[in-house]
Amino acid sequence: MKILRIVLPVLIILFTVLLIKGIKDPIDYQKEKDFRYKHVIQRLKDIREAQLAYKAENGKFTASFDTLISFVQNGTFTLIKQIGNVDDTSAVIIRDTSFVSIKDSLFKAPDFVVDSLKYVPFGDGAIFDMKAGEIEKGRVKVKVFEVIDTKPFDKNQVLSVGSMSEATNAGNWE
């Protein structure tokens, strides 16, 4: 009887701790996953923006992070500003060409580090897998790219943007 009085409260405390832990662990896991994936998704969006800018200037996507990072750091957009109405035959049309830094245009955050574009956030130095190429849809050749998280927090939910088999620039989280 004395043993039961000692063992029963210990078992109650143990089962209470296990129950709380069983409820809390999945919640903590989901919070951590959401936090990490928010950063990975933002990085994939940044890569997508850089790829789209690269394609706008070069006519194709790149499979090289070194090329993409150099392009973002040193590249420019060509802007043509037209003053006047083309439909008005008596008007004088002035076209002014200017160049705008890609880094300043796409990534306005002052703390944005272009060199980190290739690294998976929280990936201990892991680098995204990036591919670029061309596929045929119908009889039309389409330029495509794909970027895949090589070190996902959840192996059953690997994040990626673009596709090497479909003409899309969407992320699989969208």
Average of pLDDT:
88
Element pattern in H and E: HHEEHEEE
Q: Could you estimate the helical fraction of the residues in percent?
A: 40-55%
Total of helices: 3
Spans of at least 5 consecutive residues whose pLDDT stays below 50 are none
The coarse overall form would be: elongated
Number of strands: 5
Q: What is the C-alpha radius of gyration, as a whole number of Å?
A: 26 Å
User: Largest sheet, if any?
Assistant: 3 strands, antiparallel
* Spatial separation of the terminal alpha carbons: 62 Å
Strand order of the largest sheet: 3-4-5
Beta-strand portion reads 15-25%
Main structural class: alpha+beta
Structure report:
- The chain has 174 residues and is of the alpha+beta class.
- It has a domain at 2-65 and 107-162.
- The chain is 41% helix and 21% strand.
- It contains three helices and five strands.
- The strands form two sheets. It has a three-stranded antiparallel β-sheet with strand order 3-4-5, with helices on one face.
- A hairpin with a 2-residue loop joins strand 3 (129-137) and strand 4.
- The longest helix is centred in the first third of the chain and has 57 residues, at 2-58.
- The N and C termini lie far apart (62 Å).
A few lines on this structure:
The protein has 174 residues and is an alpha+beta fold.
